[in-house]
Every structure is written in C-alpha cells, then in structure tokens.
C-alpha cells in the first residue's frame, strides 16, 4: 500500500482533530435556561423547562374563617383553666369529651353498653380529665353510672339550638355542632358514647397531629377503599383552635337538617380533599369497621367462634376503636348485661368483655332483685 503524501497526512490529521473537537463540544452542551426565570423556578427540578411555573407551595389556600364568625362554644359550668395541657411533644391535650342526652327530658338509667363504652375510654386512653357534656336538665344516673361517676366530670350546659340561622331540631345535629365547638375551644379527644376504644391514641402517635379523623367506608361496593362515604365524626382527635375544625364548623352555613350525615360525615371528606395538609386521615379499618349495614351488625353480634372465619376479631385487627352504631344495633346492645358479655360467643362480646368491671356482676344482681320486686 502506498504511503500517503504529506498533504494527505495533514488533511487526515485535521480531520481527526475536527472529530475530537466536535465530540467534546457535543458533550458539553446544556439546555439553554429560560430568560428571566423567576427565583422560585430553580426550586423545582424541571421548573426551568416549564414557562410560567408556579409551585404549589406558593399558591395560598382559602383564608381561615375568623373566630368571630364562628358560633361560640356554650359556657361550661366548670373551671376550664384546670383542663390539662398537651404533654411534651404532643399537640393534643389528654382531655376527653363525650356528649349525652341533649334533649332536656329525663333520661333512662345509663344502659350497660354505654357503661362499657365509657369504661373502655378510661382504660384505653387514660385521660387526665374526662368530661361528659349533657343538657343541664338531663344528667346521667343509675347504678352503672354510679360506678363511673368518680372518674368522669359532669358538664351541664345549654346545647346549641341553631347554627347560622338554621334550626337544630334533632339532638344528633346539636351534638354534631357542639363537639366542634368544644374541640376548637379546648382541644382533646371527642368520642361518641357508643364508641369502644381499643388502643391508646397517645402510643399510636395521634396526639402529635393537628386533627385526626377516620374514614367511614362507603356501602357502595363499586367504590375503592380510598373513596369513603366520608370522615365520621364519632371520633375526633384535635388540638385547640385547629384550622380544619374551624372550616368544618363554618361549613354549617349551608346546613340542611333533612340530610342526615351531610355535614357530620360527607362534608368533612370534601374539606379534607381541599385542605389535606390540615389533618391526618386514617383508613376505614382504623375506627369504624365493621360498618353500620344490617349484615355487618349481624356479623358482629351473631354467635361465632374465636379465630374462625365467621366473626371479626377486634383486637387482632389492630384497629383503634369500634363505633357500635347504637341506633341500628339496639336489638343487640339494649339487652346486654355483664353475664351476657362474659358468656357470649360473638365478635362483640369477645371484645367487650375486656372492659367488664369487678363490680358489674353485683350491679346486675341488684337490678334483677329490683325487677323482681316490681321496682
């Protein structure tokens, strides 16, 4: 093969140098930044490629309703300055609220299933202070209440009769508004009187959050577990003055008493979708499972064997509470006694017997004797 001449060698050398320079140049190319890119654009990894980008953190949320625009909490006939403050590392104080009999008439004696639910709160949450708010003319009474009285402070009050001009005709709607007013004013834990608390909220970390609510599963089987019927207000954990609760109470401007759970369950979920940073949402298995459907209530209360497929094991599930849906399950709850709980073989009795007290049997005997005497 003939040796390349000098001009040819020079040409090949220049060609090689050109190839090397081109490769180096291409390797150092970078996207040209947008001219006059705002400072905040550099905080997003791809912001420089998107003209006029505004990060979500800079978009203001809707303003909070001023406290003066909210219906005030009823006056409490208690020394509220003595209410406990949040403990170190927590936002929520160890203060429990429940509501009983807001109708103003003379209530029957406290039934055993309410007694067990209240006792479950005392045993599982170990609150520094527990308040039972009631109509000033409707205090709880009866031998089961007498067992609880040393541990729960009665809070007589006048319940709200209207909200933003809308009448609150049903006691349940009065209670829906009252619980929000109490938690905004004092913070703590609200539980319905038919709610069984199975685990410590403090150990679960709930007291470190602004607001905690649990999903209520939709009865519509076409919806996923992340499409609940709403966030049930039977259990609310909240710090005082929580923004989410203020929005929730303010939403009662559109209250319609003919819609049963419109503001107590559905509205809270709507607000959570709009303001997800203002609360902590727990799944439908945390607090309100099994649901209130007839088949679910039967499942909980019909006989079943422990650990077998036919029932539900509350403590093994790890859930925090069970709402007993008393308005729909009264056929099972009403006749309940210490004996039926201790001897029963249902999902409910296996759970509830953990909260039977040492004096319950004596009270049951006393009530039977009284009934035998016709009194």
Automatic annotation (TrEMBL):
| Membrane spanning stretches | none
Tell me the protein's name: Glycosyltransferase family 32 protein
Query: What species does this protein belong to?
Result: Dacryopinax primogenitus (strain DJM 731) (Brown rot fungus)
The family annotation for this protein states: Belongs to the glycosyltransferase 32 family.
- Give the matching Pfam families: Gly_transf_sug
Q: List, alphabetically, the InterPro entries matched.
A: GlycoTrfase_DXD_sugar-bd_CS, Nucleotide-diphossugar_trans
């Amino acid at each position: 093969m003939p040796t390349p001449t000098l001009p040819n060698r020079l040409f090949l050398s220049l060609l090689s140098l050109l190839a090397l320079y081109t490769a180096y140049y291409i390797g150092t190319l970078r996207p040209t930044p947008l001219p006059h890119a705002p400072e905040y654009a550099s905080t997003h990894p791809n912001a420089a490629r998107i003209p006029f980008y505004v990060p979500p953190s800079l978009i203001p949320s809707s303003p909070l309703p001023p406290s003066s625009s909210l219906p005030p909490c009823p006056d409490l006939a208690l020394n509220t300055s003595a209410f406990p403050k949040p403990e170190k590392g927590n936002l929520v104080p160890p203060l429990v609220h429940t509501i009983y009999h807001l109708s103003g008439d003379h209530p029957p004696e406290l039934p055993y299933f309410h007694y067990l639910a209240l006792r479950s709160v005392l045993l599982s949450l170990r609150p520094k202070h527990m308040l039972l708010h009631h109509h000033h003319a409707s205090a709880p009474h009866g031998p089961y209440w007498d067992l609880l009285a040393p541990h729960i402070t009665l809070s007589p009050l006048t319940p709200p009769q209207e909200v933003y001009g809308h009448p609150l005709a049903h006691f349940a709607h009065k209670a829906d508004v009252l619980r929000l007013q109490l938690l905004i004013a004092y913070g703590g834990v609200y539980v319905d009187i038919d709610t069984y608390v199975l685990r410590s909220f403090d150990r679960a970390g709930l007291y470190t959050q602004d607001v905690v609510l649990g999903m209520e599963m939709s009865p519509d089987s076409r919806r996923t577990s992340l499409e609940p019927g709403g966030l049930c207000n039977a259990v609310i954990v909240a710090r005082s003055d929580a923004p989410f609760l203020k929005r929730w109470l303010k939403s009662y401007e559109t209250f319609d008493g003919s819609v049963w759970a419109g503001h107590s369950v559905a509205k809270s979920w709507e607000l959570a979708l709009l303001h997800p940073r203002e609360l902590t949402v727990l799944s439908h298995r945390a607090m309100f499972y099994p649901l209130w459907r007839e088949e679910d209530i039967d499942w909980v209360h019909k006989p079943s064997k422990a650990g077998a497929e036919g029932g539900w094991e509350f403590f093994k599930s790890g859930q925090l509470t069970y709402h007993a849906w008393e308005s729909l399950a009264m056929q099972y709850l009403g006749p309940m006694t210490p004996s039926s709980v201790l001897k029963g073989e249902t999902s409910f009795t296996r759970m509830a017997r953990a909260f039977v007290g040492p004096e319950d049997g004596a009270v049951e005997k006393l009530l039977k004797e009284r009934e035998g005497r016709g009194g």
